[in-house]
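Why show two proteins at once? Because comparison is the fastest way to build intuition. When a single record is shown, students tend to memorize it. When two are placed side by side, the eye starts asking what differs. So, the first record is below.
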Amino acid sequence: MKVSERMPIVAGNWKMNLGPTEARDFAASLLSDLVTVRGVEIVLCPPAISLPAVSAVLSGTNIKLGAQNMFDAERGAFTGEISPLMLHGLCEYVILGHSERRTYFGETDDIVNRKALAAFEHNIRPIVCVGEHLEDRDANRTERVITSQVYGSLKGFPAHRLNELVVAYEPIWAIGTGRAATPQDAADVAALIRALLVELYGAVEAATIRVQYGGSVTTANAGSFAAIEDIDGSLVGGASLKPDFAEIARQTLKAKGARGAR
């Protein structure tokens, strides 16, 4: 697949914000603006408790729904977890291995990998996150960390489903800090991720995989990241909770140009 054939994707991670009523109302307030943006796949990722409410708002539109996390088992004694069976038919996407899950909840590459494989099995598209801490970057360990995470988190995926995979590069030092990576920072790591995907799956299959940048993405910088050849859009945190979220999708489309539907 050529670069021009990968549909840009912008996903909004609402994190632990907005219960069902708030989420429904906020999604409804965004909808008329979001649906006018064609040529970019837009995904809203509310908290699990708010998924059904937002799903009802998005029904019949081109806007996709994503979960923020998922367990790898279908059912069992896993108090507080959400299984892929529960998300199947409700969500098109699920964010896995977000830096906050890795940092605060001890998720390892192996855990993320198991979850992603379970997502594929249940026809949910995984958005798998990788990224380095500030101390890793300052010690010139970015390549080592990203390589380890890509090999550990993305191994063993079904080759015929790779076009459903999204990889999000989120430099942890740029999340919630207001300190975004420079376009060159993002370009360097995105190129590394693509090279690693080629090693794992071959050039043809790797070319179908979309890569996002995530880390203090705003309406002011989204276009500069989307303009990078190896980056297909963004995973947006705080800015996805603002009324002008659709502008990030528009900036992405402007940077990439209109592309065919995926």
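Second record. Ask yourself what differs from the first in the token line.
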Amino acid sequence: MGSGKTTVGRKLSAMLRLQFLDTDQELERRTGVSISQIFDVEGEKGFRKRETQLFEEVCPQSGHVFSTGGGLILDPENCARMHRYGQVIYLKVPLEVIWERLQFCKNRPLLHADNPREVLEQLYRERDPIYSRAADFVVRAGQEQAIQTAQNIVRMLDSEATAVPVNNA
């Protein structure tokens, strides 16, 4: 949340000449209501179920860059699905930068709390190790422009594609 997944994802998809899909935006489009409204009516569990159903449908589509909600990868089946169909990139942004971006944001249901900073810190502590383990690439981001982050990702993907496998036989 607040890492720039959508902004970087759009830039990256343009550079790679691929379609872009933000799962939160697609879920809002399909349901006709905001993520916050889904949380209000169905709770986090209901939202996660909808999010997973959408991802099961769209993930196999090739030629896409996906931006997913930060909780999607917490489900081991979703994580496996991500790896089965593509590369997983974690935009690792310092907590302070995320807080600067989100401190006045009203449309983040998980931050609707008496102390949103504390909630954000807890989510960061819990999720950072999970994201780091699950990622094929961890990209340190947040200080540079989204275009620079996308360019860094393209370089990483190019480097991975041109790497020569080593035969240890």
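One difference worth noting in the second protein: The helical segments are 5-16, 23-31, 35-58, 76-85, 95-102, 116-134, 146-162.
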